[in-house]
Amino acid sequence: MVDNSQPVKTPKTSPPEWGPTAWTHLSTVRTRSPLIQCITNFVSMDLMANTLLSAGASPAMIHSLQEIPEFTPRAAAVCINVGTLTAEWLPAMRAAALAAGRAGKPWVLDPVAAGASGFRLKACLELVGLRPTVVRGNGSEIIALCNASVGASKGVDSSHESTDAVEAAKSLAKSSGCIVAVSGAVDIVTDGQRVVGAQNGVAMMQKITATGCSVTALIAAFVAIDPLHAFEATATALSIFGIAGEIGMDMAKGPASLRVHLIDSLYGLDQDTVIRRVNIISFS
Known about the structure:
Distance between the termini: 21 Å
Mean pLDDT: 90
Radius of gyration: 17 Å
Structural class: alpha/beta
Shape: globular
Largest sheet: 9 strands, mixed
CATH class: Alpha Beta
Strand content: 5-15%
CATH architecture: 3-Layer(aba) Sandwich
Order of helices and strands: HEHEHEHEHEHHEEEHHHHE
Number of helices: 11
Number of strands: 9
Low-confidence stretches: 1-16, 149-159
Protein backbone atom coordinates (compact mmCIF):
# COMPACT_ATOMS: atom_id res chain seq x y z
CA MET A 1 0.00 0.00 0.00
CA VAL A 2 1.77 2.87 -1.05
CA ASP A 3 3.53 5.57 -2.89
CA ASN A 4 1.47 6.82 -5.81
CA SER A 5 4.49 8.57 -7.31
CA GLN A 6 6.11 5.38 -8.54
CA PRO A 7 5.63 4.95 -12.30
CA VAL A 8 3.54 2.17 -13.79
CA LYS A 9 2.61 1.44 -17.38
CA THR A 10 -0.19 3.53 -18.82
CA PRO A 11 -3.58 1.99 -17.92
CA LYS A 12 -6.94 2.15 -19.57
CA THR A 13 -9.59 4.57 -18.33
CA SER A 14 -10.87 3.93 -14.83
CA PRO A 15 -14.39 2.48 -14.79
CA PRO A 16 -16.71 5.17 -13.41
CA GLU A 17 -18.50 2.71 -11.13
CA TRP A 18 -15.55 1.94 -8.83
CA GLY A 19 -16.26 4.77 -6.41
CA PRO A 20 -19.94 3.93 -5.84
CA THR A 21 -19.08 0.23 -5.69
CA ALA A 22 -16.48 0.86 -2.99
CA TRP A 23 -18.97 2.88 -0.96
CA THR A 24 -21.63 0.20 -1.33
CA HIS A 25 -19.21 -2.42 -0.02
CA LEU A 26 -18.09 -0.32 2.94
CA SER A 27 -21.60 0.79 3.89
CA THR A 28 -22.87 -2.80 3.63
CA VAL A 29 -20.10 -4.02 5.94
CA ARG A 30 -21.13 -1.32 8.41
CA THR A 31 -24.78 -2.34 8.17
CA ARG A 32 -24.33 -6.11 8.33
CA SER A 33 -21.26 -6.30 10.60
CA PRO A 34 -20.10 -9.66 9.17
CA LEU A 35 -18.39 -12.04 11.58
CA ILE A 36 -14.85 -12.65 10.33
CA GLN A 37 -12.87 -15.51 11.83
CA CYS A 38 -9.15 -14.74 11.80
CA ILE A 39 -6.46 -17.36 12.22
CA THR A 40 -3.51 -15.03 12.17
CA ASN A 41 -0.07 -14.35 13.56
CA PHE A 42 0.62 -12.92 17.00
CA VAL A 43 2.06 -9.69 15.57
CA SER A 44 -1.05 -8.80 13.57
CA MET A 45 -3.91 -9.72 15.90
CA ASP A 46 -4.37 -6.26 17.44
CA LEU A 47 -4.25 -4.16 14.27
CA MET A 48 -6.26 -6.70 12.30
CA ALA A 49 -9.05 -6.80 14.88
CA ASN A 50 -9.13 -3.00 15.12
CA THR A 51 -9.19 -2.64 11.33
CA LEU A 52 -12.21 -4.91 11.13
CA LEU A 53 -13.96 -3.13 13.98
CA SER A 54 -13.33 0.34 12.55
CA ALA A 55 -14.72 -0.78 9.18
CA GLY A 56 -17.86 -2.12 10.86
CA ALA A 57 -17.12 -5.85 10.82
CA SER A 58 -16.92 -8.19 13.81
CA PRO A 59 -13.56 -9.96 14.33
CA ALA A 60 -13.14 -13.34 16.01
CA MET A 61 -9.54 -14.37 16.65
CA ILE A 62 -10.28 -18.08 16.98
CA HIS A 63 -7.60 -20.60 16.04
CA SER A 64 -8.27 -23.59 18.29
CA LEU A 65 -8.75 -26.78 16.27
CA GLN A 66 -11.35 -27.91 18.81
CA GLU A 67 -13.57 -24.88 18.19
CA ILE A 68 -13.48 -24.82 14.41
CA PRO A 69 -16.18 -27.44 13.62
CA GLU A 70 -18.70 -25.53 15.72
CA PHE A 71 -17.62 -21.94 15.13
CA THR A 72 -16.33 -21.63 11.56
CA PRO A 73 -19.63 -22.44 9.78
CA ARG A 74 -21.20 -19.50 11.67
CA ALA A 75 -18.60 -17.01 10.41
CA ALA A 76 -19.36 -14.93 7.32
CA ALA A 77 -15.78 -15.40 6.11
CA VAL A 78 -12.43 -16.73 7.27
CA CYS A 79 -9.03 -15.05 7.08
CA ILE A 80 -5.97 -17.32 7.34
CA ASN A 81 -2.55 -15.73 7.82
CA VAL A 82 0.59 -17.89 8.12
CA GLY A 83 2.88 -15.21 9.56
CA THR A 84 3.92 -17.05 12.74
CA LEU A 85 3.25 -20.50 11.29
CA THR A 86 3.82 -23.57 13.47
CA ALA A 87 3.15 -27.24 12.91
CA GLU A 88 0.58 -27.04 15.72
CA TRP A 89 -1.44 -24.29 14.00
CA LEU A 90 -1.45 -25.79 10.52
CA PRO A 91 -4.17 -28.41 11.21
CA ALA A 92 -6.48 -25.65 12.45
CA MET A 93 -5.84 -23.66 9.27
CA ARG A 94 -6.64 -26.69 7.13
CA ALA A 95 -9.76 -27.45 9.16
CA ALA A 96 -11.03 -23.87 8.95
CA ALA A 97 -10.49 -23.71 5.18
CA LEU A 98 -12.34 -26.99 4.71
CA ALA A 99 -15.16 -25.98 7.06
CA ALA A 100 -15.61 -22.67 5.24
CA GLY A 101 -15.72 -24.48 1.92
CA ARG A 102 -18.31 -26.98 3.13
CA ALA A 103 -20.45 -24.13 4.51
CA GLY A 104 -20.19 -22.18 1.26
CA LYS A 105 -18.39 -19.32 3.01
CA PRO A 106 -15.50 -17.38 1.42
CA TRP A 107 -12.03 -17.55 2.89
CA VAL A 108 -8.91 -15.51 2.24
CA LEU A 109 -5.27 -16.60 2.48
CA ASP A 110 -2.28 -14.40 3.36
CA PRO A 111 0.82 -16.49 2.47
CA VAL A 112 3.30 -14.48 4.55
CA ALA A 113 6.93 -15.11 3.49
CA ALA A 114 5.80 -18.08 1.42
CA GLY A 115 9.23 -18.63 -0.10
CA ALA A 116 11.25 -18.30 3.10
CA SER A 117 11.45 -22.03 3.86
CA GLY A 118 10.41 -25.38 2.48
CA PHE A 119 8.01 -25.97 5.39
CA ARG A 120 6.30 -22.64 4.86
CA LEU A 121 6.06 -23.01 1.08
CA LYS A 122 4.61 -26.52 1.34
CA ALA A 123 2.03 -25.33 3.86
CA CYS A 124 1.01 -22.38 1.70
CA LEU A 125 0.71 -24.54 -1.41
CA GLU A 126 -1.45 -27.01 0.52
CA LEU A 127 -3.73 -24.17 1.64
CA VAL A 128 -3.94 -22.79 -1.91
CA GLY A 129 -5.03 -26.30 -2.95
CA LEU A 130 -8.02 -25.94 -0.61
CA ARG A 131 -9.36 -23.22 -2.92
CA PRO A 132 -9.32 -19.90 -1.10
CA THR A 133 -11.58 -17.23 -2.54
CA VAL A 134 -8.71 -14.73 -2.49
CA VAL A 135 -4.95 -14.96 -2.03
CA ARG A 136 -3.30 -11.66 -1.03
CA GLY A 137 0.44 -11.30 -0.76
CA ASN A 138 3.35 -9.14 -1.76
CA GLY A 139 5.19 -9.59 -5.04
CA SER A 140 7.77 -12.03 -3.69
CA GLU A 141 5.14 -14.19 -1.99
CA ILE A 142 2.98 -14.48 -5.10
CA ILE A 143 6.00 -15.25 -7.29
CA ALA A 144 7.12 -17.92 -4.81
CA LEU A 145 3.69 -19.57 -4.89
CA CYS A 146 3.53 -19.42 -8.67
CA ASN A 147 7.02 -20.85 -9.11
CA ALA A 148 6.79 -23.09 -6.01
CA SER A 149 10.31 -22.01 -5.14
CA VAL A 150 12.17 -21.35 -1.89
CA GLY A 151 14.29 -18.22 -1.73
CA ALA A 152 12.02 -15.77 -3.56
CA SER A 153 11.15 -14.00 -0.32
CA LYS A 154 13.33 -12.20 2.19
CA GLY A 155 10.72 -12.53 4.95
CA VAL A 156 7.64 -10.41 5.42
CA ASP A 157 9.12 -7.73 3.15
CA SER A 158 9.05 -8.02 -0.63
CA SER A 159 12.06 -7.94 -2.91
CA HIS A 160 9.72 -7.50 -5.90
CA GLU A 161 7.34 -4.72 -6.89
CA SER A 162 3.69 -5.67 -7.34
CA THR A 163 3.94 -4.88 -11.05
CA ASP A 164 6.78 -7.43 -11.35
CA ALA A 165 4.35 -10.11 -10.22
CA VAL A 166 1.43 -9.46 -12.58
CA GLU A 167 2.07 -12.49 -14.80
CA ALA A 168 2.73 -14.71 -11.79
CA ALA A 169 -0.52 -13.49 -10.22
CA LYS A 170 -2.49 -14.19 -13.38
CA SER A 171 -0.97 -17.66 -13.65
CA LEU A 172 -1.71 -18.44 -9.99
CA ALA A 173 -5.28 -17.18 -10.37
CA LYS A 174 -5.84 -19.40 -13.41
CA SER A 175 -4.34 -22.50 -11.82
CA SER A 176 -6.05 -22.10 -8.44
CA GLY A 177 -9.38 -20.59 -9.48
CA CYS A 178 -9.03 -17.81 -6.90
CA ILE A 179 -8.66 -14.05 -7.01
CA VAL A 180 -5.04 -12.99 -6.50
CA ALA A 181 -4.08 -9.62 -5.01
CA VAL A 182 -0.52 -8.32 -4.95
CA SER A 183 0.31 -5.46 -2.58
CA GLY A 184 2.84 -2.85 -3.64
CA ALA A 185 3.19 0.65 -5.03
CA VAL A 186 0.03 -0.24 -6.94
CA ASP A 187 -2.10 -3.01 -5.43
CA ILE A 188 -2.78 -5.46 -8.27
CA VAL A 189 -5.93 -7.63 -8.39
CA THR A 190 -6.55 -10.32 -11.01
CA ASP A 191 -8.85 -13.23 -11.69
CA GLY A 192 -6.49 -14.55 -14.36
CA GLN A 193 -8.08 -12.47 -17.11
CA ARG A 194 -8.98 -9.05 -15.72
CA VAL A 195 -6.28 -7.00 -14.03
CA VAL A 196 -6.88 -3.81 -12.06
CA GLY A 197 -4.67 -1.69 -9.84
CA ALA A 198 -5.71 0.15 -6.69
CA GLN A 199 -3.50 3.22 -6.46
CA ASN A 200 -4.52 4.52 -3.04
CA GLY A 201 -2.18 4.53 -0.06
CA VAL A 202 1.05 6.06 1.22
CA ALA A 203 4.57 4.65 1.48
CA MET A 204 4.72 5.03 5.28
CA MET A 205 2.08 2.32 5.67
CA GLN A 206 4.91 -0.09 4.91
CA LYS A 207 6.60 1.07 8.14
CA ILE A 208 3.69 -0.17 10.28
CA THR A 209 3.78 -3.87 11.02
CA ALA A 210 0.64 -5.82 10.08
CA THR A 211 -0.90 -3.34 7.64
CA GLY A 212 -0.74 -6.02 4.94
CA CYS A 213 -2.25 -8.58 7.28
CA SER A 214 -4.99 -6.14 8.22
CA VAL A 215 -6.01 -5.32 4.67
CA THR A 216 -6.29 -9.06 4.02
CA ALA A 217 -8.84 -9.22 6.83
CA LEU A 218 -10.66 -6.23 5.34
CA ILE A 219 -10.77 -8.08 2.01
CA ALA A 220 -12.39 -11.01 3.83
CA ALA A 221 -15.06 -8.67 5.24
CA PHE A 222 -15.80 -7.15 1.84
CA VAL A 223 -15.94 -10.55 0.15
CA ALA A 224 -18.22 -11.79 2.93
CA ILE A 225 -20.90 -9.27 2.00
CA ASP A 226 -20.49 -9.68 -1.78
CA PRO A 227 -19.16 -13.21 -2.41
CA LEU A 228 -20.42 -13.31 -6.00
CA HIS A 229 -18.19 -10.35 -6.87
CA ALA A 230 -14.98 -11.27 -5.06
CA PHE A 231 -12.83 -9.54 -7.69
CA GLU A 232 -14.56 -6.20 -7.17
CA ALA A 233 -14.73 -6.64 -3.38
CA THR A 234 -10.99 -7.29 -3.21
CA ALA A 235 -10.13 -4.21 -5.26
CA THR A 236 -12.42 -1.93 -3.28
CA ALA A 237 -11.12 -3.18 0.07
CA LEU A 238 -7.56 -2.38 -0.98
CA SER A 239 -8.61 1.06 -2.19
CA ILE A 240 -10.61 1.87 0.96
CA PHE A 241 -7.72 0.88 3.22
CA GLY A 242 -5.38 3.00 1.11
CA ILE A 243 -7.68 6.02 1.34
CA ALA A 244 -7.72 5.69 5.12
CA GLY A 245 -3.92 5.71 5.02
CA GLU A 246 -3.86 8.83 2.85
CA ILE A 247 -6.17 10.73 5.18
CA GLY A 248 -4.31 9.47 8.24
CA MET A 249 -1.01 10.60 6.76
CA ASP A 250 -2.28 14.19 6.65
CA MET A 251 -2.37 14.14 10.45
CA ALA A 252 0.52 11.79 11.24
CA LYS A 253 4.05 12.64 12.36
CA GLY A 254 5.42 9.16 11.80
CA PRO A 255 4.48 5.46 11.71
CA ALA A 256 3.14 5.32 15.27
CA SER A 257 0.74 8.21 14.84
CA LEU A 258 -0.19 7.01 11.35
CA ARG A 259 -1.29 3.71 12.87
CA VAL A 260 -3.75 5.56 15.13
CA HIS A 261 -4.97 7.94 12.43
CA LEU A 262 -5.35 5.07 9.94
CA ILE A 263 -7.89 3.38 12.20
CA ASP A 264 -9.69 6.65 12.95
CA SER A 265 -9.82 7.55 9.26
CA LEU A 266 -11.21 4.17 8.26
CA TYR A 267 -13.91 4.54 10.90
CA GLY A 268 -14.82 8.04 9.71
CA LEU A 269 -14.93 7.54 5.93
CA ASP A 270 -18.06 9.01 4.33
CA GLN A 271 -19.69 8.55 0.95
CA ASP A 272 -18.36 11.71 -0.66
CA THR A 273 -14.77 11.00 0.41
CA VAL A 274 -14.87 7.41 -0.83
CA ILE A 275 -16.39 8.20 -4.22
CA ARG A 276 -14.05 11.14 -4.76
CA ARG A 277 -10.83 9.44 -3.70
CA VAL A 278 -11.12 5.84 -4.93
CA ASN A 279 -8.40 5.33 -7.53
CA ILE A 280 -8.73 1.96 -9.26
CA ILE A 281 -7.45 1.56 -12.80
CA SER A 282 -7.82 -1.21 -15.36
CA PHE A 283 -4.86 -2.90 -17.02
CA SER A 284 -6.85 -5.36 -19.11
